[in-house]
Amino acid sequence: MKLPWQERPQNCNDVVWRYRENPIIKRDAIPTSNSVFNSAVAPFGDGYAGVFRCDNKAVQMNIFAGFSKDGIHWDINHKPIDFKAGDIDNVHGDYKYDPRVVFIEDRYWITWCEGHNGPTIGVGYTFDFVEFFQCENAFLPFNRNGVLFPKKINGKYAMMSRPSDNGHTPFGDIYLSYSPDMKYWGEHRHMMSPTPFKASAWQCTKIGAGSVPFLTNEGWLMFYHGVITTCSGFRYAMGSAILDKEHPNIVKYRTQPYLLTPSELYEQVGDVPNVIFPCATLQDVENDKVAIYYGAADTVVALAFGYISEILTFTKENSL
Ligand code: BMA
């Protein structure tokens, strides 16, 4: 298994840089798709598997499994995931979008935004990316951006989420919740708020957890999105946060400047202009490399890279 990777371009001083051939997944990647974006990937077998948000040409939102040998070229199933009832009763929602994927103990868990009289956090699992099982929703509506930690913390599953409203939420903090069984969630703890305009305006309207956190020698490293309200609407950029290893609701450091903001055409132009929405990473901690997957302009999937140690240093030295 080889991590997708390109070295930093010579004329670039940024801590995170883009894949030159972006976007890696185009809007018409499958015959029925209007757009493919905000999608998640994970190591699987001798390559990678993923769960992709594909809105169809009726603009119905659903999630699809896909496979790749190199993490860059993806074969996405033409049919959406057909969830069976899990070991707990399942609930069928009106739509599914913005999936995250994480391997915990014996299976891959998937979380996404599930339509249940408004958006909330859907939960499911698979062992093989062929058969999928859906469980109870984690929270009441309205909520978005449910992101699990890759291992239990103090004996419990841990999930970040962002309570919201039924529309294009103009607010939002990240919370952390715990569960003994992936069904009942509690011990809700506040984690991170949007920033005061003066301190860091790119993340002053709302924020949401992005990629599944991974452990470093400084704590959990996570990429998140932050939003500013401009005169032409929301603009979504990406930052990083370092969370305490034992109590990840404690945010040790968090970037004041963004790491990526919409500045390439495929990020600035699309169904929703000016959106960078990170949903996953692949990392090779030993070799200090991370590949970050993000949705661009609610239309395509793009990839960026960085050295983990540089991102940690940058996050610490440029923290709020
Ligand atoms: C959020 C979600 C995301 C989307 C973003 C920008 O509320 O709907 O799926 O990428 O808005 O449109």
Q: If you had to describe this structure to a student in words, what would you say it looks like?
A:
By secondary structure, the protein is mostly beta strands. It has a single domain (30-317), classed as Tachylectin-2, Chain A (5 Propeller). It has two helices and 22 strands. It has helices at residues 265-268, 308-317; strands spanning 16-18, 33-44, 47-56, 61-68, 75-76, 83-85, 96-104, 107-115, 119-126, 132-134, 143-148, 157-163, 174-179, 186-192, 206-209, 214-216, 219-230, 233-243, 251-254, 276-284, 289-296, 300-307. The strands form five sheets. It has a five-stranded mixed beta sheet, with no helix packed on it. Strands 15, 16, 17, 18 and 19 form a five-stranded antiparallel beta sheet that branches. Strand 18 and strand 19 (251-254) form a beta hairpin. The N and C termini lie far apart (37 Å). Beta-D-mannopyranose binds next to strand 7.
